[in-house]
Write a structure and sequence with these properties.
alpha/beta, Rossmann fold, 11 helices, binds iron/sulfur cluster
């Protein structure tokens, strides 16, 4: 099971405690290949395991309907009345060399520390390291909370944790820090931190061992390109997700009220193929912001975030 901690003893204990006969297993795309090993390790519980094989990018996308759902790869995001066990799959690797490499790139003395659920358990080590090198580590829990008819959406729940849709742990401390150290991979989270918290972001990637400072204004540049692509659109489809933690109905209705010639469209999986055949010129995605931020170039038709559509198109 490589470098991730699947906490199978905890899973086993929960299955036995709940006397669960049918257990649904959710894994992120990169960890689905671990299902055979997980099944073998849990065989002696006597439970029947079912792999939920639809794409799953976050705990916003909980599937239920069995005695127990074991959701690997993320922290709890949405309160449901269903039986769900969250296993964040902490990444087991040393980061001391990575921190040494990041040290000369950090700006100033007060450093905001941020990461994703896979590396949360390493934040104590990061704090100690920075203190020993004369820096002042600053950490905060995000404050984004929303109540929806279908549950209480909590978003990032751990101290220092950010999600692509919740960088409030960075916003909370933006006035107190000189720069941010983000431990994680990809550009989705770091772009959001840079855009909303307006301080230099130094990204240290535990998988590649690379350290880089994010280009200032990177989000704004991409946003401008997205908006200019939508300038000539005469009609808009407003996408509402069916995933429980991505179903922002109130946002979709707010956009619909202000955007002339628009229609509400419900979808589970937003993809270039589906969007291409819908009879609208451009789309506002109220589901996961990753669809727009990471993938907009893969769509022939323009796709925008809700606020971009409202502000930029002056609705
Ligand atoms: S960023 Fe997207 S996938 Fe991640 S928790 Fe938020 S809505 Fe879900």
């Amino acid at each position: 099971m490589g470098q991730y901690n699947f906490e199978l003893d905890k899973v086993k204990a929960r299955i036995l405690q709940d006397k669960a006969k049918r257990v649904l297993v959710q894994l992120p795309e990169g960890l689905k290949s671990e299902f055979p090993g997980i099944s073998t390790a849990l065989e002696d519980t006597g439970a029947m395991l079912i792999l939920q094989s639809d794409p799953c990018y976050g705990a916003c996308d909980i599937k239920t309907g069995y005695d127990l759902t074991v959701h690997f790869g993320h922290n709890e995001f949405i309160k449901t009345n269903d039986n769900v066990l969250y296993i964040p799959c902490h990444y087991q690797s040393r980061i001391d060399e990575l921190l040494e490499k990041a040290l000369p790139v950090l700006k100033g003395q007060k450093i905001g520390i941020l990461t994703t659920s896979q590396h949360i358990h390493q934040l104590n080590e990061v704090q100690e390291f920075l203190k020993n090198r004369g820096k002042v580590p600053v950490l905060s829990r995000g404050k984004q909370r929303e109540n929806f008819a279908n549950g209480d959406i909590m978003r990032a729940t751990a101290s220092g944790q950010v999600l692509g849709c919740d960088v409030s742990a960075a916003i909370e401390i933006q006035e107190q820090v000189d720069s941010f150290l983000f431990i994680g991979s990809g550009k989705f989270h770091s772009l959001g931190i840079e855009n909303w918290a307006k301080k230099p972001v130094i990204q240290a990637n535990p998988y590649s061992g690379e350290v880089e400072e994010l280009e200032s204004g990177a989000w704004e540049k991409e946003k401008y390109l997205r908006i200019s692509k939508a300038f000539n659109a005469k009609s808009f489809g407003i996408i509402i997700s069916t995933k429980p933690g991505q179903r922002l109905m109130a946002t979709a209705e707010r956009v619909k009220e202000k955007l002339p010639n628009s229609a509400l469209i419900e979808l589970e999986h937003v993809s270039p193929q589906v969007i291409e055949y819908l009879p609208y010129d451009a789309f506002v995605i109220t589901a996961c912001p990753r669809i727009v931020i990471d993938d907009w170039k893969n769509y022939k038709k323009p796709i925008l975030l809700p606020d971009e559509a409202l502000k930029a198109l002056q609705a």
